[in-house]
Amino acid sequence: MITREDSLKNFNAKMEELILSKYLLADNKISEVLKTVADSSLLYELFEYVTEDFDYNMYKRVCFTSYADKVDFKLPKKNEDLLAFCFLLLMEIDSKKEDLMRLLDEYFRSAGGKQQSYNNFALKVLIPFQLTVKKVAESIIEAENAETEEEKSAGKENRSGYVFSPARKYVLAVKNEVVKSGTPKDDGDRDELIFCLDELSDALAKKDGKTAALAFIGVKFILRGEKRPIADLDKLAALIAEETDGE
Question: Distance between CA 55 and CA 168 in Å, rounded?
Answer without folding.
Answer: 23
